[in-house]
Structure formats: C-alpha cells, structure tokens
Fold this protein.
Amino acid sequence: MLGVMFRVSLFGESHGPCVGVLVEGCPPGVEVSEEEMNRELLRRSRGFMSTPRREGEEVFIASGVFRGRTTGAPIAIFLRNSDVDSRPYEVFRRRPRPGHADYVARIKYMGYHDHRGGGIFSGRITAGLVAAGSIARSLLRMWGIKIAAHTVQVGRSRVEGELSFEEVIKAEKSPVRCVDPEKSKEMMEEITRASEEEDSVGGVAEVLAVGLPVGLGEPPIDTLDGDLCKAIMMVPGVKGIEFGDGFKMAEMRGSEANDPIVLRDGRIATKTNRSGGVNGGISNGMPLRIRVAFRPTPSIRKEQRTVDLDSMREVSLKIEGRYDSCIVPRAVPVLESVVAIVLADHLLRWLSWMKFSGSGTR
Ligand SMILES: Cc1cc2nc3c(=O)[nH]c(=O)nc-3n(C[C@H](O)[C@H](O)[C@H](O)COP(=O)(O)O)c2cc1C
C-alpha cells in the first residue's frame, strides 16, 4: 500500500482479465471525471515507437464515486486487458530476459507467478497508478497545486537548463514529450536508430510540481522526498532519482549549492532552486523539481545471453513480441501520477495538523 491518508493499492497482471487500483482515504466531494481519467490513460498508452498493444483504456469505476464526485468510500477502478498475446512470453519462464524481472520472479514466487506479458512487472500495471493519479490531481487542484513532467534526455540527446512550469506543459505537443523541437527530433532519431539496431535506449524525465505550501513531509521517517522516491521507484524501469541539482551538488561548494533566502513580494522564497523544493524532508514552497533516470527497455530483439533454468545451460535468447523502444515518453504521465498521489497524501496529512494546531507560526 502506498500512502497513509490517501492510500493506493494496485491489482492485476498484464495479461490477466484486468488491472486496476483501489484508492482509500480520499475525502468526499473531490471531482472525478471519467473522461479526464481516460484521457490520461491514453497519454500513458501512447509513446514514440512504443508497443503496438492497444487497450481501450476505458475505466470502470465500481465504487466510491457518485454524480461525478468522490463519496468518501473506497474507490475501486478496473481496466480491462483485451489486446493480449501471451505466446512470446512462454519461453521467459525458462530463459529469463536479461535486465527484466523474469529470473527474480521465478525464484521469489517459486514458479507460481503469472509471467504472461511480464505479469506484475509489466508497464501495464502503471495504468492503475494513472487512474488514481487523476483523482489525486483533482484533489491537489482544489489547493492550487499543479504537476507536469517532460522528457529531458533520450540516450545522448539532452535538454539543458531549468524550465518553468508553463514551458514544461508545452511538451505534450512533441511525440517524445520534449519541449525543444530540435531536441525532440534528435530524440526520435535516437529511438529509431536503437530500434533499427534491434536495441533500446534509456533516458531521463523531469517532474515539476508548483503551488506547494511550506510544510509537506513528516520527518524523520516519512520525509516528502523519501516518500516520493518510494513511489517513483514503483514505476518499472526507474534506476535513478535526483532532486534539484542532485548529483551535481557533489562537486559544488556550499556557497554555490545553497539557495539564498529572499523576500519576493513580501513572501519568503529562495533565489535559486538547487534543492528542488525540499529541505529536511519538508516542502519549502519552491517548485518541486525531480529528475528520474530510466534504463533502456530490457526487451530487445538483439541476441543476448541467458541461462536455461531447466537444463542449467548458458544459451542465447532472441526476443520476439511487442515492446517499447524507449520507456521515457510513456512514463511521463505515470511520473506525474505517482507524484500527485504522494502530494495528495501529504497534503491531507498537513491539513489535519493545521486543523488541530492552527496555521499560526510561533
Ligand atoms: C510505461 C512503461 C512501459 C514499459 N514497456 C516495457 C517493454 O515494452 N518491454 C520491457 O521489457 N520493459 C518495459 N518496461 C520496463 C519493465 O517493466 C521493467 O524494466 C522491468 O519490470 C524490470 O524492472 P526494473 O527495470 O525496475 O528493474 C516498461 C516500463 C514502463 C513504465
């Protein structure tokens, strides 16, 4: 389960009857638009040179929503799996794909797992996160909090510099969800080249959240950045996360890394945002800025080495089937969703303190 007040659990497997999500603890009265949810799910299912798998992406909301608003009861959302072809996956039980979860799943679940389409390790599982994320975003909107993500790197093609929220939302126009048209072209070329060479390519997406109050996060254990990392790591294929300047900070002096505290229109702000919106595990009121690195998609058509677990012999593996050549463009709406879920949870936790202790500062 993810979250303490706004709680999310996932169910379903890639090639089972459905995937879905259970959202508990969402307060009553939050607007839920099926249309918007389906639109977000469609964003998740389409990416440049992505798998040709085409699901209807029509949600079935079984409980917790009445006349377009949450009731306060648990919200159960189902998404049917219909476009499935499980045949290419049979061999992976015996011959695990390098980089994928086939081997660890077989050992962990003692062979009882549903391996079809990658089972619970498939990107398909993130559809439930996007459905829950749509509710979380609606809740956050009521408090003026907005989230957007974009692709900043594919292979060696990278967008430099810090972009504003208004710039980031323009990324949706690009097939790879990158704001820069020239870089978009380069990124598409990187993905096309990798695919032509029977390979895949990795990259980086950046998430921005604006409108956060100072005070989200519950250190020392449930820090905002720590909870965000847990949620982001739920997204399959994620291999690195950094806040603000992240790893670059390792080579800086304190005088370069510290964000000067200033007054902006009579309110406290920081001049720069190298910390990425979090200090001490608590939101500092500046935009949350998170960069997420994705591995190249593990399933590639190029011949690879693996072990046949039945005969315990090293063998070569040639993967057939439908795969994404680069995960990043499709992961953009998924990252927006997991960040929304964590922020919704921490906003509710913060508001419950405010109600108890008042909002004045001593
Ligand atoms: C939206 C999305 C789509 C994905 N598509 C594929 C795919 O087509 N083929 C594949 O091998 N992995 C794909 N992945 C990644 C694997 O699910 C992931 O690499 C695998 O579960 C192993 O987990 P790890 O990379 O986090 O260790 C996708 C991930 C996401 C988020």
Q: What stands out?
A: Residues 7-357 form a domain with the Chorismate synthase, AroC fold fold (CATH 3.60.150.10). The mean pLDDT is 96. The first strand starts at residue 7 and ends at 12.
